[in-house]
Write a structure and sequence with these properties.
Layout (H helix, E strand, L loop, with lengths): L3 H28 L14 H25 L14 H28 L6 H7 L4 H31 L2 H14 L2 H4 L1 H21 L2 H25 L1
Helix pairs in contact: 1-2, 1-5, 2-5, 3-8, 3-9, 5-6, 5-9, 6-8
């Protein structure tokens, strides 16, 4: 049993690692939305877009290093487990609820109010090669759920004692990062869907299921449905 002094030292390391991790994850992502990305190349260049995706993977890698090397904890501490049948099943169920029920209702509600939804953002993405869209879908599902869900929710829960308070911080951050590329309408949608997926994560504590849901929804929206529409 650790002595009080050891416990305080461990707590101090955990708090420091949490704030450094959030600074890396959220601060690094924020830089990608600033003119600093010009250092990677012309914004409209496909090569630059690939580099931006690789930067996101680097941020996720840094978070993994903080967990494993600095905190000396397993990835299970952020809810990441092997993708078994149970995780896949729950993930697909969540994806179906989001794609077939929640998002259509939200889009309908926003269109009634005259707020643009995904059209502008999709027009930029759907002209990109399929292989890149697949890469972006996988990146979004794995990287975003690591740096905007698994790590911040579990670590802020430890700091605040409340998973709901942790979610109340992380969900708006996740939604607002979509503002520059998608606009206000999608941000409102991401606030709701982010709240649902975060509540699901708090309930299931299974980041792999959340990743499965995220990849499935994005793959349907950015790859599968557009391909079927062209084929029809």
């Amino acid at each position: 049993m650790p002595c009080p002094r050891q416990s305080e030292a461990m707590k101090s390391v955990s708090v420091t690692a949490t704030f450094v991790g959030l600074a890396v994850a959220w601060g690094g992502t924020a830089l990608l939305l600033t003119p600093a990305t010009r250092l990677l190349g012309a914004p409209e260049s496909l090569a630059t877009m690939v580099l931006e995706q690789l930067v996101l993977w680097a941020l996720a890698g840094a978070i993994v290093a903080i967990i494993v090397v600095w905190e000396k904890r397993p990835l299970a501490s952020i809810g990441l487990r092997s993708l078994g049948w149970q995780s896949a099943g729950w993930g697909l169920l969540l994806a179906a609820a989001l794609f077939c029920v929640v998002m259509p209702l939200l889009r309908l509600g926003l269109r009634v109010t005259g707020i643009p939804v995904f059209e502008a953002g999709l027009s930029k993405i759907l002209i990109l090669p399929v292989w890149f869209r697949i890469f972006a879908v996988v990146t979004a599902g794995i990287v975003e759920d690591t740096i905007f869900l698994g790590f911040p929710v579990t670590r802020l829960t430890q700091l605040t004692g409340s998973p709901w308070m942790a979610g109340a911080v992380s969900v708006p951050v996740f939604a607002l990062f979509h503002l520059p590329n998608w606009g206000a309408g999608p941000v409102l949608i991401y606030l709701v869907t982010g709240g649902i997926t975060t509540a699901f994560f708090i309930w299931r504590q299974d980041l792999s299921a959340n990743m499965m849901a995220h990849v499935t929804v994005d793959a349907l929206a950015l790859v599968i449905v557009p391909a079927l529409s062209r084929a029809a």
